[in-house]
Amino acid sequence: MSSQDIPEENLPAEQDAHGEASVADDKDPFADPGLPPHEHRIQDIDERAAKRSERAVAFLFTVSMLATVGFIASYVAIDADKSVYIFPLGHISALNFALGMTLGVSLFCIGAGAVHWARTLMSDEEVAEERHAVQSPPEVKAKVLADFADGARESAIGRRKLVRNTMFGALALFPLSGVILLRDLGPLPGTKLRHTRWSKGKLLVNMNTNEPLRPSDVAVGSLTFCKPEGLEEHDHDFQVEIAKAALMIVRIQPDNIKDKRELEWSHEGIVAYSKICTHVGCPISLYEQQTHHALCPCHQSTFDLSDGARVIFGPAGHALPQLRIGVNDEGYLEALGDFDEPVGPAFWERG
Questions:
Q1: Which run of H or E residues covers position 333?
Q2: pTM attached to this predicted model
Q3: Would you place residue 18 in the very low, low, confident or very high pLDDT band (cuts 50, 70, 90)?
Q4: Full domain range(s) for residue 79
């Protein structure tokens, strides 16, 4: 059925730029039907109904705030290994269920509150306006600012203080859900990066034989890897501790040691340095006995073990830390303390 078959009085009217109605004809059978007459909502004419909507919106925003607090409390209080039975889901993680529910409720209530506010309290009158050039004259800019002020006034954000304040509270509190997730990055390291298992009196134990070393066990030009006494591979924290305490010892003729402190901290030419590269923490495993150079196989950082283990090539930022050693009454090599600086790569707290 075409528009010609419809009685003229039943055809949809069209509003022009000034809101005047026009009728479709043979030349333009698909005229814009225009905007329907504006119908007032109950909230527009009854302040009690508007107050009820205001309280409903505030309630939703308040529930969102409480759900966000519940999210944070669940994250802190519920053990990650705890499970609960939820019908019909079965046994599921209590933590995941609590986090999902509280986060979902928080987001839903913010969205539902905003939608209910827009549908019941904000102005819903449609306004048609012609398009204009991108560059606006001063009078148009002034009109835009006036329209913005009208929109702010019609949104009732200034008059509906309860809605405004609870919305701000919900939006301000919700981001805490993301901030609290940073807790999964782990506890703060404190001073753990500055200390290892080495301490005064700890014997140097050969990593291969698991036996303490005597000076006679270390030949000139050899490279031996050691761990502190009492650190065993079956310990639950072995990997964490050995990553900081791994030690390499070499024996150099005392006359070939260039660094004065290195000579003082050695024993009969036996020097002990951290095995952990100061670039990205790779284990150093290559040693050239003629040049006394230790090479990291990851990025070729090279350290001169006869000159304070200073960096002579590669991206490493500083020398390897040296461990001061001596011999106990039984003739075994022992540490005379911990490293005097953090081992491994630099970190921002290092001072």
A1: strand 333-335
A2: 0.52
A3: very low
A4: 42-185
